[in-house]
Amino acid sequence: MLTKSVIVAGLLCATAQAPTDSSSDLLTEVRSLRADLQQVASVGVHAQILIARLSSQEHLLKAVSDQLAEVRQSREDAEHYVATFDDIPKRVEEMLRTMPREQVDQYERHMRAEQVRVRQRAANLRQQESDLLNQLTNEQSRWVDLNAQLEELVRQLPASKP
Description:
Blueprint: H1 2-83, H2 88-98, H3 101-156
Helix pairs in contact: 1-3, 2-3
């Protein structure tokens, strides 16, 4: 009878420990899930902020790129116009054959002033183009940084558990 009591007591102890181990495992799993949820929530908020920044950065990149294209076209047009002034001496010589000297001199002064103005405009556009190209490079670098931060957040997400 004593042997039976010892066996029953041993079984009761084993049975009592089994639920405790199961409860402990369950508590550990709940804590793990809670930590994962907190991490996902935190990463989610950061991801939303980064996505908004990334979108804003893409709009800025497009605007700078469009502006750069416009300035390049204006610069090319101005440089083409500057090239038309290369034949001023030839035109003046031809005009002297048919027009009074005073009118030709006035035309030449006007064309020389226009040439200076257009050359200055072309120089300003070259500088503006250079500035925009630098800005575009900087904005592209910021976009790459934001994208890298977003990728890092994705890596921080907890791995799927089977």
